[in-house]
Design a protein that fits this description.
The complex is a heterodimer.
Chain A (H helix, E strand, L loop, with lengths): L6 E10 L2 E11 L4 E6 L5 H8 L7 E6 L2 E4 L4 H14 E4 L11 H12 L4 H14 L15 H13 L5 E5 L7 H16 L3 E5 L3 H7 L2 E6 L2 E6 L1 H6 L4 H11 L5
Helix pairs in contact in A: 3-4, 3-5, 4-5, 5-6
Chain B lengths: L1 H10 L5 H39 L4 H41 L3 H15 L3 H21 L3 H6 L4 H26 L3 H10 L3 H31 L11 H12 L2 H35 L1
Helix pairs in contact in B: 3-4, 3-7, 3-9, 3-10, 3-11, 4-7, 5-7, 7-9, 8-9, 9-11, 10-11
Chain lengths: 256, 289
């Protein structure tokens, strides 16, 4: 892990009004690494993820993605351009899918390449079809999102992010809005991406997934990273009592 | 797996099928009877009003002789309303986007526009545009800018269209704003995360969804405007109300002519509502697919 990390977050703070939701966060993600962020609701894990592609404006600190460095608090044209480039390098998957309901499945996935990258329609459609195939939903290409199950929607949303060919995929609780029987198909797609060497940063409550797929698990509580390491060491020998409590709750079936 | 569950019971013979069918038939019969009763009340009301008119010596033959001049005015009413609603829609589109933008100039101008127009009567706006603006035009001509001055002196029909467009544009700005705001924030975030610029987010994601919500309201505004367009008669535009007024005064047949005019507006409104209903149905289908 001596190479330059793909993502580096340094000294990140975020306030919502008087609420200090992220405090002095530092985190690195290497290329091809899968990092899962776990923690109780309100621990700041989603906010951390959303700060990386500036869906939330960080209050202080630095975000670095693939050698692009953005400092919090900057403004102006240069800053907006950097943020835009960071968004092109990161793909985002949301808890609530957020598919575009007025577009077919194929149009949803081709939308980024066509509108943002100004790609030829035929070329964008090819890329969209390839990525729909990756998530196993090419046969739904002409369907509209409201005709899909939650699991299928999320898989299309993953294909939509992949079609932009990002350097890293950010997942914000991708299975939390799903019925239990639909979670598996989404996790399987994510597992496949991990095996293909996709760099992934995943905020999740799915401890089983974190344990099986992650290279590293990051534990957050009260706006801070309290512990991180290989899944085995975090799950089997947690240091922080809050991590122990989190894992205990999961083992007794109450963590979801 | 779920389809199996849904289709299962339907294929099985239901011993109580007949009971369900007779209940549905009973409900349908009730609905038809209710509809007939309501229609009866309408016919009764029209009969009472007509009888009253005849007793008061209203002349139906005068009304029948002059309904064609009203029809001529209806063309102007429709023309003025259609052009005005089109311009108002464009104004409302830009107005609402400006109101929601973070640009202080855009926000300021659109807020000022909506507040000013909604805070003043349409009739005053018509007077200002038709009678007030020419004063500015004359002064500009006096200062040596006759070409610019001429722009401020409007004929009655363009002045009426301008007044109605500006007025409805302001009200519709608020309707459009509500429509744009009704699109969930997640849609915007998903588009931003893909790397879209604010304008691309608006054009590709927000507007196409908001328009579906806005269209029925635009229809309502159009129906309201057909009747508000009566106010442009004060400038001498030959539309329904102006013509009715003219004949009414000439022949002292006030009730007759204004009743014909009222009927013309009423029929226009009914036709517009019908068209609006059809349009909405078609749009709903397009979304289902």
């Amino acid at each position: 892990m001596s190479a330059e990390p793909l993502i580096r977050v340094a000294g990140l703070h975020k306030w919502f009004g008087m609420l200090h939701v992220l405090s002095e966060i530092s985190l690195e993600v290497q290329a091809r690494e899968v990092v899962c962020i776990i923690g109780r609701s309100g621990s700041g894990k989603s906010t951390l993820l959303r700060c990386i592609n500036f869906l939330e404006e960080p209050s202080a600190g630095k975000i670095m993605v693939d050698n692009l460095v953005v400092e919090a608090g900057n403004r102006g044209r240069e800053h907006r351009k950097l943020v835009h480039e960071i968004r092109l390098k990161t793909g985002m998957v949301f808890q609530e899918f957020n598919l575009f309901p007025h577009m077919s499945v194929l149009e949803n996935v081709a939308e980024g390449p066509i509108t943002v990258k100004k790609m030829d329609r035929s070329k964008a459609v090819k890329i969209a079809e390839m990525n729909l195939d990756r998530v196993g939903l090419l046969f739904k290409r002409n369907e509209y999102p409201n005709r899909l199950s939650g699991g299928q929607k999320q898989r299309v949303a993953i294909a939509r992010a992949l079609a932009m060919e990002p350097q890293v995929m950010l997942f914000d609780e991708p299975t939390s809005a799903l019925d239990p029987e639909l979670i598996g198909e989404v996790l399987n797609v994510m597992k496949k991406l991990a095996q293909e060497g996709t760099t992934m940063l995943v905020v999740t409550h799915e401890m089983g997934f974190a344990r099986e797929v992650a290279d590293r698990v990051v534990v957050m509580a009260e706006g801070e990273i309290i512990e991180q390491g290989a899944p085995d060491s975090v799950f089997n020998a947690p240091h922080d009592p809050r991590t122990q409590a989190l894992i205990e709750r999961y083992r007794s079936g109450g963590a979801k | 797996m779920t389809t199996e569950h849904l289709e299962g019971p339907a294929s099985v013979e239901d011993p109580h099928q007949a009971m369900g069918e007779s209940l549905v038939a009973l409900q349908q019969r009730k609905r038809v009877i209710q509809g007939l009763k309501v229609t009866g009340v309408w016919i009764g009301l029209i009969a009472v009003v007509t009888a009253g008119m005849l007793m008061l010596h209203i002349s139906p033959s005068y009304m029948l002789e002059h309904y064609d001049v009203i029809l001529q005015g209806a063309g102007t009413t429709i023309y003025v309303s259609l052009v005005s609603i089109a311009i108002a829609t464009i104004l409302a589109l830009f107005g609402s986007i400006s109101r929601l933008s973070s640009n202080p100039i855009a926000q300021g101008i659109s807020g000022f526009y909506v507040s000013l127009v909604r805070g003043t009567p349409l009739l005053i706006q018509i007077y200002v545009i038709y009678l007030g603006l020419p004063q500015i035009g004359e002064q500009l001509t006096g200062l040596g800018f006759p070409a610019i001055g001429k722009l401020f002196i409007l004929d009655a029909v363009p002045a009426g269209i301008l007044a109605l467009s500006l007025n409805y544009g302001a009200y519709m700005t608020e309707i459009f704003r509500a429509g744009l705001q009704s699109i969930s924030y997640g849609q915007r975030e998903a588009a931003i995360a893909l790397g879209m610029t604010p304008w691309q987010v608006m054009r590709r994601v927000i507007l196409p969804q908001a328009i579906r919500i806005i269209i029925p309201d635009v229809g309502n505004q159009f129906i309201a405007m057909q009747k508000d367009s009566a106010l442009v008669s004060v400038m001498g535009v030959w539309e329904i109300t102006f013509i009715a007024n003219r004949y009414a005064r000439r022949d002292s047949k006030y009730m007759e002519m204004f009743l014909v005019a009222a009927a013309a507006y009423w029929i226009l409104t009914i036709l517009s509502s019908w068209l609006q209903g059809r349009l909405e149905k078609r749009m709903a289908q397009a979304y289902e697919r």
